[in-house]
Fold:
Amino acid sequence: KEQQSTPSTSGSEHLNSGTTPANINWDELGFGIDHTAPYMYRATYHPGSGWEGGLEPYGPLQLDPSAQVLNYGQSVFEGMKAQRSAKGNIVLFRPDENAARMMAGADRLSMPPPPPELFLDAVLSTCRANAHYVPPQGKGSLYMRPLLLGTGSILGLGPAPSYSLVVYAAAVGAYFKTGQLTPIDLIVEERFHRAAPGGMGGTKAAGNYSPVLVVQLAAKQAGYADVVYLDAKTDTYLEEVSSCNIFVVKGNTIKTPPLAGTILPGVTRKSVIQLARQLGYEVEETNVTVTEAMDADEIFTTGTAVVVSAVGSLTHRVSTTSSIHDKSQRGLCDFLDRVCPLATWPVKQQSRDGGWVC
Ligand code: COI
Structure:
């Protein structure tokens, strides 16, 4: 739904006087905190008094060293984007889905779920207060990062006695350094798993994201954009990429791993499934073997940060020796052309091993 770009919401009008920041070059936005927006939202929860808070200038949080989140990691987060529509209004994409996911994550980590109205008010008022940080249409977005943190102090293992809901924002561009339209190279990870059955892989917990760094950094050094994880039980099925969900396309059928507790229920994932079905594709939420992926016509990833990214190549090293079996996939094909008919997809000539099959 379109929101007015300069609405007057109680509590935020006095903050909404910013002019376009002079130091931002909208044509050179990356995905980072170079352009953090000046206002954030912070509410605290105490048993008995519930949630209380509002907008304040962006700045450090003051935490005791004994804060639960610093010791035991009681923390979930969300990622959302505010963008300008063709009419110049500011639009958010399905924020109610993020509200519901944060509530589910809060339950999983024994935190008080912020009511959806509070979550939405926090996000909308942060967005309105920082409206001048929403890039012009087509130049990027205002990435909004809601956090739910166990900020109260505790020493023995247990839930925090108090919590904070924080929403901050930054003007961002494409997630991958190569830009939104360049297909990414992925590698299948063989040593580590992202999540195990019965764990919390289906939760947007902060703790799911740092364990991937060790392999992600190594993959980046080797020239890959990110890593694809296999299931922890059989090492056979695709799970997800460190930063996003994954889809494989063969003919008119699109497959993506099912929501069985180990992968993140992505909002973009859900939306792409709906859109693909409307476009006439057969979409299966089912186990996808890595062998099937190597044989797919095309592969793409979805996520709030990555949007929809074409995969240019997928590498699967079948042994720990240096034998590399690259198989290129058509990264830019039918599906993406139909989803984004106006985009001009660059054509990549060959993959890492020269075996481009597009
Ligand atoms: C997002 O897609 O918004 C995320 O939170 C993923 C993160 C790794 C950037």
